[in-house]
């Protein structure tokens, strides 16, 4: 994955594609969703995982341009500005596998994830094998769902996804899937398939499906003032595809989930 920065030739070349005025077609919005997610991920990587609200607020008050921050202020890991987070790298691996297979090939994607995040890779930090647990580490951070996935894959389990992880991987990783399958009746089935490869957890799936439904609205229609309203309307349709009680509950937390059938 090429490193992105404010003066990156790659970033400069895609700016015309990403401008709202030029994104008039569905195809351009599919491209914009993928490139935008990768650029945004790289842009915030140096201030990723700052959980202390007071410290983060104080940090951000020192300057107005927060993207591609140098030097890194990441409390968990430090790597070159412009590189992806662990979420962005998952996004990229999924994208690459989709391109190489003209769609989803679960076995290929599992192998690709293992080869990108497993032993001997940039993600193979000594902290994961009993080394010093001094933070921040120098290099990439292997997050929880990926650690569970690697263990399950090495043990040759058929279901490789983490059964407990509910982190935001499920939203970031499905962006290329939603970009490819938006408007296709298999969209939600494909999204669930990809989510469960590393997060075999119903909550993660529900969030992934909700994000895919919302992104599909924007890809197919462009700027949409009432996108949330459209999403809620879809979720109340008893004939909708891939009905999930948890997805319904996330959008309607005050209503009983038995309505979602």
TrEMBL record:
<dbReference type="InterPro" id="IPR036705">
    <property type="entry name" value="Ribosyl_crysJ1_sf"/>
</dbReference>
<dbReference type="InterPro" id="IPR005502">
    <property type="entry name" value="Ribosyl_crysJ1"/>
</dbReference>
<protein>
    <recommendedName>
        <fullName>Crystallin J1A</fullName>
    </recommendedName>
</protein>
<dbReference type="InterPro" id="IPR050792">
    <property type="entry name" value="ADP-ribosylglycohydrolase"/>
</dbReference>
<dbReference type="Pfam" id="PF03747">
    <property type="entry name" value="ADP_ribosyl_GH"/>
</dbReference>
């Amino acid at each position: 994955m090429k490193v992105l920065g404010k003066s990156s030739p790659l970033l400069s070349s895609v700016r015309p594609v990403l401008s709202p005025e030029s994104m008039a077609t569905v195809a351009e919005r599919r491209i914009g969703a993928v490139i935008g997610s990768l650029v945004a991920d790289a842009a915030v990587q140096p201030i990723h995982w700052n959980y202390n609200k007071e410290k983060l607020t104080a940090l951000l008050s020192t300057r107005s341009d927060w993207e591609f921050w140098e030097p890194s202020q990441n409390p968990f890991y430090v790597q070159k500005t412009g590189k992806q987070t662990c979420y962005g790298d998952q996004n990229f691996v999924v994208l690459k596998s989709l391109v190489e297979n003209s769609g989803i090939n679960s076995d290929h994607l599992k192998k690709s994830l293992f080869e990108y995040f497993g032993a001997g890779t940039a993600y193979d930090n000594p902290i994961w094998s009993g080394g010093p647990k001094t933070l921040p580490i120098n290099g990439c951070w292997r997050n929880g769902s990926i650690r569970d996935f690697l263990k399950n894959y090495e043990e040759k389990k058929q279901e490789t996804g983490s059964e407990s992880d509910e982190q935001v991987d499920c939203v970031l990783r499905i962006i290329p899937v939603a970009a490819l399958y938006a408007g296709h009746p298999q969209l939600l089935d494909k999204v669930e398939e990809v989510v469960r490869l590393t997060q075999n957890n119903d909550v993660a799936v529900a969030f992934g499906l909700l994000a895919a439904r919302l992104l599909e609205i924007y890809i197919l229609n462009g700027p949409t003032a009432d996108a949330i309203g459209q999403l809620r309307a879809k979720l109340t349709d008893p004939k909708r595809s891939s009905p999930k009680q948890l997805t319904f509950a996330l959008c309607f937390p005050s209503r009983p989930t038995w309505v979602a059938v």
